[in-house]
Amino acid sequence: MIDRPMLEALLKRWPTRYQTNTPSWENTALYRSLNMANAASKIPANADGTNYDIGRSIGLWVSAFEILAHTGTESDLFKVYDILDKVEWHLTECKDKIYQPYGYKAGQPLRSLACWVYGKIHDGRNDFMHGNPITADTLILPRSNRHLLHYAPVLYLGM
């Protein structure tokens, strides 16, 4: 039942993306982002899966977020934060803007928990994609002790 509203919304936008010669930037970005998110969700579930596979998935998730946040001219970490801060979260812990996420500098506004979590995902992606050392801590969200990949789809659906 949770998928039905999303399916209906996507089917409504399908013709304006794929049955026109000049699709809007928003429709093109939506389907590009969904393609990226679909690829990101396919992590190996067998014995030959490695942290490299997980790093690639994290990189694809960040791309999916940044495609959705793209304004037509630019996208970055802070554009994603701006969208996540506008989501109507139902838990007080998620609503309060009390966090200093990845990339925070003194004088900037504090952000929501969603931004802090996304910042950890983005930082992990940077480590993987730039060849920085990777540890088990790179993949685990502090405090919850859960894997970063558990959070990416939830945040993505919030966007």
Description of the structure:
This protein is mainly α and 159 residues long. The chain has one domain. Helix content is 58%, strand content 3%. It has 8 helices and 2 strands. A two-stranded antiparallel ribbon has the order 1-2. β1 (140-141) and β2 form a beta hairpin. It is globular. The mean pLDDT is 87.
Distance between the termini: 19 Å
Average pLDDT for all residues: 87
Helix content: 55-70%
> What structural class results from the helix and strand content?
mainly alpha
Report the count of strand segments.
2
Number of helices: 8
Brief descriptors of the model:
159 residues, mainly alpha, 3% strand, single chain, two-stranded antiparallel sheet, 8 helices
Summarize the structure.
This protein has 159 residues and is mainly alpha-helical. It has 8 helices and 2 strands; from the N terminus they run αααααααββα.
Summarize the SSE layout with pairings:
Elements: H1 3-18, H2 25-40, H3 51-69, H4 77-86, H5 92-95, H6 113-129, H7 136-139, E1 140-141, E2 146-147, H8 152-158
Helix pairs in contact: 2-3, 3-4, 3-6, 4-6
